[in-house]
Write a structure and sequence with these properties.
By secondary structure, the protein is of the alpha/beta class. Helices cover about 45% and strands about 25% of the residues.
Length: about 300
């Protein structure tokens, strides 16, 4: 069993067929088939079901894929570390939409004053996807919202981010005074996508208080949500960091709702417990911690 076997296996999964994987790797299709067969014989498992000329991962195949991505990612990191010791290197960072949009650029600016030969590979996604990429070693460190239950992930709390109900200044909620949770019943909500901690945390809060709202949209783009709100499409729950400029320009209004004064979420730095943290990554982590000390939202 070699790294080559695992890379071929990953390529077959990513490219859907053995012939596509062969083209991608510039090897023959029989070589791909042989590598897959050798893995199956080595572990005495079946990696794929072959149905109607298509390949479907088995449960064993899914498990091996998880380990393969982690092992190959770690191997590639080792190669990068030692083969390119004096060349430009990069840090793979995964950030939630809030962190990637509103915090990361400030940290990168400070980082580059000390390490100007480091490139960043940035992945912006929701918390669930970032955790998955940490576990498969597709990224080095991540900044996410909320809790992580996986024992293979180290979590370092950074700062508390306030969630606010926000709508256009002309929306009906913006015109009311002394708003309570019952005033949200039946109102149209523009929600973040499944996997977003903003959405899950607010939904949990609504369920605890037996409040039902009408989820009009699901959207991955905060900018799209804000534009919809400006058109009076409903209300949303977003990070104060994401809407503070629009609030200051009187384009949107943060609604004070009785019972929601302390709706915060934790922004945390995460990395795999077995991850080797080199000098550059450690410096980046320290900058994130300093940002916590200097910025309170």
């Amino acid at each position: 069993m070699t790294i080559r076997h695992l890379k071929i296996f990953i390529s077959v999964v990513d490219n859907k067929t053995m012939s596509n994987a062969a083209k991608k790797l510039f090897i023959s299709q029989p070589s791909v088939s042989q590598a897959i067969r050798e893995i199956e014989e080595y572990y005495n498992i079946m990696l794929f079901e072959r149905l109607s000329q298509r390949l479907y991962l088995t449960k064993d195949g899914e498990n091996l894929l998880k380990y393969s991505r982690y092992i190959v990612g770690t191997f590639d990191s080792m190669e990068k570390e030692f083969k390119n010791k004096h060349s430009n290197i990069y840090i793979r960072i995964g950030g939630s939409l809030t962190f990637g949009t509103y915090i990361l650029p400030n940290i990168m600016e400070k980082f580059e004053k000390k390490y100007n030969n480091i490139d960043f590979k940035i992945t912006v996604d929701n918390t669930k996807k970032i955790e998955e990429k940490i576990l498969t070693n597709e990224i080095d460190i991540g900044i996410v919202e909320g809790e992580t239950q996986n024992t293979d992930i180290i979590k370092v709390p950074l700062l508390k981010d306030r969630l606010v109900i926000v709508c256009s200044t002309s929306y009906e909620l913006a015109k009311k005074e002394n708003i309570n949770l019952k005033d949200l019943c039946g109102k149209s909500m523009i929600a973040r996508e499944d996997g977003s901690k903003e959405r899950s945390q607010f939904q949990k809060f609504l369920n605890q208080n037996n409040i039902k709202v009408y989820c009009k949209w699901n959207c991955t783009s905060v900018e799209t949500i804000k534009n919809a709100l400006k058109k009076g499409q409903g209300f949303s729950v977003l990070s104060i960091m994401a809407v503070k400029d629009e609030i200051e320009r009187n384009e949107l209004k943060a609604i004070e709702v009785e019972g929601m004064e302390n709706l915060y979420r934790d922004l945390c730095l995460i990395y795999h417990k077995n991850k080797f943290l080199n000098e550059e990554i450690n410096y980046f982590i320290n900058l994130c911690k300093e940002f916590n000390q200097d910025n309170v939202f």
